[in-house]
Amino acid sequence: MNKKILAAKSSSKWFPMSAVGLACMLAWNSNLYAQQMSAPPANVDLGRQVLSELVAVKSVHSLGSTKAAQLLADRLLAAGFSADDVHVVAPKGHPEKGNTVVRLRGKAQGKPTLYIGHLDVVEAKREDWNFDPFTLSEKDGWLYGRGVIDMLGQDSAMLASLIRLKHEGFVPERDIIVAFTADEEAGGDANGVDFLLKEHRSLVDAGLVINPDAGEAAIKNGKKIYLTMQTSEKMFLSFEVEVTDKGGHSSRPTKENPIYRLSKALARLSDYSFPLHLTDTVKLYFKGRAVLEQGQVKKDMLAVSGDKPDLGAAQRLSQEVETNIQMRTTCTATEIIGGHAENALPQRAKATIQCRVVPGETQAGTEALLKRVMRDPSVKFSVRTPARPSPESAPSGPVRAAVERVTKSMWPEIAVLPSMTAGASDSIYTRAAGIPTYGVDAMFDDLDDGRAHGRDERINIKVYAQELEFMYRLMKAIDQVSIK
């Protein structure tokens, strides 16, 4: 507190503070609070410089990430990291899909903590944007550029935080590794995390993984409301289903028409809801989310969060897409083709069914259930994209406690919610490799105006500065978590 204010309080006479004095005190306290919430100015400047450089690289799928990977490696070496601890590696046949792995050496030989972040971004066309998507632009308190929210902003925050720790002389209890990787967005042919685990396991072998890309921090009506800790994600699985017939002239229609038969089978799938399957993560999510809701929705979320979920509450929550997908596996038709000529009966009709499977369920079980639902033996199944098992990481325990401590140290009112995401992230590779993995990030984004992958992608300047501070605190807090 201001020394003059303290002196006034300790005086034998106390005079009411003037309106001007009160305003000055409040402004001073507000500025101090803002400084505590943000990383030091020099670190924010470093983060923004790196972010600007990464945006300008244009690391889309067709061009690759090697230039971005080398840029970060050069930054790390200039910051004092040993060449023995900074590696740029790419798969054979894909020199453009480079990955950078850096290690901050710790005190002990225990298993390190690994942070992962992808360097590739979604393509963007200049004519679609109000700004050059591959130049970091600032306007009205926002930073614009492809990748600033997914996830070059988080990459630059991890880099700047690691350099800050290095310059402060911080020696972690165990090694901290950060891997900046290729080919996440396109589901491409050279995914960096998958490649590193298979070909360079010694560089990234860890006892715990933090993936900022899998976390979500939400703003609603201008107010921060929650931060998620992703503990699991649904498995991606797709099938091709096909009906065939001998065909014939269109003037002689039959009931064996493949288009009709397949359409009827798909209609039965459309009317079907998969069985209720509430994981431990989802129950904790609803329990925490209920605090932010009101009325019947609040009651229903609490009613499904216990050991014996209320089926009526689950049915009401199932009416909304966002809550329904948390409670069950989903499968939906995404592509369909059929026929070969206008005046001929179709000989073939084919569709793609894309599933998101709750952890703990299987590919074989999902296929068997789909066949029962579609109820037509003429529908032939083939697997288009096989499921990659991704076990749930423990939703309660020391990692969650550390995340909550860091979050509450900056935003006491914010709820931390364990989450299972319906979409895919690179966490699927580390979980499949047997490493507990958590998606954590504080890059708060507007629920009603999310621009990741879209036009004029942006991040609030103050939010970005706070992300830098959050990541720095998170790295120190997770270092204190005991890893078996």
UniProtKB/TrEMBL annotation:
Transmembrane segments: none annotated. InterPro entries: Bact_exopeptidase_dim_dom, Pept_M20A, Peptidase_M20, Peptidase_M20_dimer. Keywords: Hydrolase, Metal-binding, Protease, Signal, Zinc. Residues 232-378 form the Peptidase M20 dimerisation domain. Residues 1-34 form the signal peptide. Belongs to the peptidase M20A family. This is M20/M25/M40 family metallo-hydrolase.
